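Quarterly update from the structural biology core.
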Amino acid sequence: MFDFRLPFLAGLTGASQFNARAMDHIYTYLKKKNGDNGRPEYRLPSMVPGTLLLPAGLLINSWAAQNHVHWIVPDIGTTLIGAGIILNFQSVQIYVVDTFSLHAASALTAVSFLRSVAGFGFPLFAPEMYKALGFGKGDTILAAVAIAIGCPA
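Predicted structure, tokenized:
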């Protein structure tokens, strides 16, 4: 049976360690470039690769799994999914803290609530969606939704 946990963990860990350091350097660079005026938006540039990695990983993982290609290909896709998720998660969390500094706990609670509602709703339709469409088409729809939501954000 395919075990997605290790590649997912590798994507989460690698991207989070890289992003934690890179985000501070990017923030400092943008702050100096704009007259030592820091803004919360300077925390968001790492969402760009995250927004691209998540749908790319979904597409690679799903179509490789559906077509039964070598096991490393879905693992690469799963690693990209983990990296995309954590890049977006860290960027949003730090942005919210910087934006609502006095009320950061309440703002983070609202973000967590929205994430939890999505986590609650997805299992309600996902099994039927994948049964009807298969992995490839099902994750292609998710990748399109991720692009439609992620790119404007």
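The chain has a mean pLDDT of 91.
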